[in-house]
Amino acid sequence: MKEIRAKWLKAKMYDSRIQSPEVEKKEKWIGYLMGPAGALLLNAVLASYLNVYYTDVLDLTTIWGGVFLMIFPIVSKVIDAVTNIAMGYLIDHTRTAQGKARPYLLLAAVLLPITGILLFVVPESNQTLEVIWVMLSYNLFYSFAYTIYNMSHNLMVPLSTRNSEQRGELAVFNNIASIMISGIVVALIFPMLILPRLGVDKGSWITMAVILSILALPLTLLEYYHTKERVTEESAEDKENAVSFKEQMKAVFTDRYMLCLLLYFLVYTVGSTMKNISLVYYCNYVLGSYNDGITQTMVSVIGGIPMGIGIFAVWPLAKKFGKRNLTMAGFVLYGIGSAICCLAPTNMTVVLIGQFIKNIGGLPCAYVFMALMADTYDHLEWKHGFRVDGAATSIYSIITVTMTGVCTGLFNRLLSSSGYVAPSLVDGVTVAAQQTDSVKGMLIFCFVGLEIITAIVMIVLLAFVNVEKGLKEKQEEIAARRNAETAESEEKNA
């Protein structure tokens, strides 16, 4: 009896705290807002400042004549792409009482803090050891720990419910965690209060990394315990086990809607990644002065105001005009805002006006894209009779990681080839170097020029994505199939 009770308590320990068949308030606020904040905050800080740590603190731009910082991110992301495919396969072939994606959140909660700290405690006594440590720690975090988290996290909205309205609300909450919570720290507090104190002091950077990494553990556990895979639970006998990963990939790559959305995401990732990487450098050397605590904060505030407004405005507009249509209209403003910045990239007033317009245009993309992807998952299930969540998400994640690596490598190569000079530490004080016009021109293109091109391409791609048409009828047909299969199974077992 004690053994039975012990097993029951152990199983209960891993159960979700969400049991309702409908989406609950605490699920939105804890599972999709508070929970993801830790891992997303850590990743956001790394996305914005890890390259600064490599170039300015560790001075890796000098290794191999500047080639190391170009090659290593690209090679690492090839490895990351492979692990994403493997992770997609694992998720689609995982069947537990806790779902197929949620269990990996539990694993990620432990791995993220450990690997996040390893990124910064780089030994500098030997250059060969330093290079090896950087490559290993980078891949342990991105190709292993964050891949596990990111793929399982990205599937929680599509697997949470088939109710389009509830799913849309969860997508909004999910993106608030990414955009607002991490944005407040990364885009406002960090450049205003933290970066000036960090300078190029390695010990201070390590302390910051330890705090953020440890914070990811309890918050990711909150996400695990306050999410629920209702779509996975619909059928006890899931057909996805009988469908090969090759068949799922074929379904993904032969669907017009999915191909357009994946290409759209690819283009958007390139533009936004180049902008995010160049933000600190652009504010330090083009728009303001090095770590002045004001320039980057002002640019980020103007970006944050529209995102705050969007919490209340985007979803009602998306329901009225459609997610695709609203996103297309947004990218018109997105391109116009970027073009305004290009008119006078060194003028604070002009740049802030352009950034405000651009960020208003980016609202629909930020808040409703995952809901649009979830609609496409349902469309594919209706079309083929099986779900492709893991396969499609692996491609989605591969785009994220590979383009991040390619863009980082390309940006670092542009830095070194244009003549970038890293700041130095003189008598405990960080002293910034004067950059050439070629460096400044490159930073202007990466920060404001490239996104004009990406906006135009994304408008064209979205014109072909009318997946919302007839979606309700498709979802009803899927439900009817499930009910028929359940009835047939019960009849056989009777």
What does this structure look like?
Helix 4 runs parallel beside helix 6 (127-160) and helix 11 (295-321) packs across helix 14. The protein is built from 17 helices and 2 strands. By secondary structure, it is mostly helical. The chain has helices spanning 2-13, 25-34, 37-57, 68-92, 102-118, 127-160, 164-198, 202-225, 245-253, 256-287, 295-321, 323-343, 348-361, 363-384, 389-418, 437-462, 471-493, and strands at residues 424-426, 429-431.
Provide the fold topology.
Layout: H1 2-13, H2 25-34, H3 37-57, H4 68-92, H5 102-118, H6 127-160, H7 164-198, H8 202-225, H9 245-253, H10 256-287, H11 295-321, H12 323-343, H13 348-361, H14 363-384, H15 389-418, E1 424-426, E2 429-431, H16 437-462, H17 471-493
Antiparallel strand pairs: 1-2
Helix pairs in contact: 2-7, 2-8, 3-7, 3-8, 3-10, 4-6, 4-15, 5-6, 5-8, 6-14, 6-15, 7-11, 7-14, 10-15, 10-16, 11-12, 11-13, 11-14, 12-13, 12-14, 12-16, 14-17, 15-16
The gist of it:
The protein has helices at residues 2-13, 25-34, 37-57, 68-92, 102-118, 127-160, 164-198, 202-225, 245-253, 256-287, 295-321, 323-343, 348-361, 363-384, 389-418, 437-462, 471-493; strands at 424-426, 429-431. With 494 residues, the chain is mostly helical. The protein is globular.
H-E order = HHHHHHHHHHHHHHHEEHH
Low-confidence stretches: 236-241
Give average pLDDT, whole number: 84
Q: Count the helices. How many?
A: 17
Rg measurement, Å: 23 Å
Beta-strand residue percentage: under 5%
| Helix percent band | over 70%
Tell me, briefly, the overall form: globular
Describe the sheet with the most strands.
Answer: 2 strands, antiparallel
Strand line-up of the largest beta sheet: 1-2
> Which structural class do you get from the secondary structure elements?
mainly alpha
End-to-end Cα distance: 31 Å
Number of strands: 2
